[in-house]
Design brief:
alpha+beta; 36% helix; single chain; Alpha-Beta Plaits; 3-stranded antiparallel β-sheet
Length: 286
Amino acid sequence: MKALSEIAASATADDMDDLERDFTKLHTTWFALERMIYLSGKYDLGDAYISITSGAGGTEAQDWAAMLMRMYLRYCERKEWKTEILEKTDGQEAGIKSVTIHVRGDCAYGLLKNEKGTHRLVRLSPFNAKNLRQTSFALVEVLPDMAEHFHDVVIKPDEIRVDTFRSGGAGGQHVNKTDSAVRMTHIPTGIVVVCQNERSQLQNRERAMAYLKAKLHQFNEEQEKKELNTLKGSTKSADFGSQIRSYVLHPYQMVKDLRTDVETSDTQGVLDGDLDQFIEAELKRG
């Protein structure tokens, strides 16, 4: 880069096109190398699972969880990643209680992993007759897809309980009229996963097992950190005191990451999936 600057200082107008091409190549190469530095974790280059759960705030929180689901789906669309909703539980009046999304794409886990935590929304309530200001919370969890690392987690057959039920979501007559949905419980830890997107029970079992292994991997890592006194708890509640990012739509427009202090007034852009500035800042901070 220094050499290119020295050449540019004495370059003629005819040389500028070549210099611009060389600069573009160098910038692309540097960006790729920088990306590899920050995405060097064991699972960073692979696929991911995103789970969103509504927290304190009732119907408001369930609507906020649905907004976050849309935000992450739009982000994945920008990255040209493929997404699949494995399980979704709708709210009673609006929004969703929870959703699990499988994301397939280059470096999906590495880029999304730091999105885990509580996301806080402040806005004028569309569900309140007096249109009062409301604060809502939703919890985001991000796990690696361990399909290529199944040997890292061993689950004994007698450690799991499998229940089947009829899917309540979309998927055609076959899905809704047979017990194709699967709920899998890991008895020693109490971890429960659900998959109801596939048409056959066998496919849902396979997807549920993959997701269960990802959750167990995270559970085991958190237990190790607890033993080293570097983690105060294996879970975070979706309420005050545990948020990583705040989205304020009233009385002003601001999205602020509480870890990096990166902020923007383009709230609509963020909710439409423009998350790069937050994700890159947190990657570099870590």
